[in-house]
Design brief:
alpha+beta, two-stranded antiparallel sheet
């Protein structure tokens, strides 16, 4: 089995477990499914924003008169 590492939002403690962990071992609060500081979420947003801006610029190149 693979180990799952989740960081608690409240006490910033890393929780490592083989199965489903629902609560922090240090403070007892519920652990998030997706951490707001997750690098993958930021990269996904950046890629979507980049392609949207690139598409807008390409459309404007052809749409605006020269």
């Amino acid at each position: 089995m693979s180990q799952i590492k989740k960081t608690c939002l409240y006490c910033q403690t890393e929780n490592i477990s083989d199965g489903d962990i629902q609560q922090c071992k240090h403070c007892g609060m519920d652990l998030p499914e997706k951490h707001p500081n997750d690098r993958n979420l930021k990269v996904k947003f950046f890629v979507k924003a980049f392609w949207l801006i690139a598409l807008f610029c390409l459309i404007m190149v052809f749409y605006l008169p020269r």
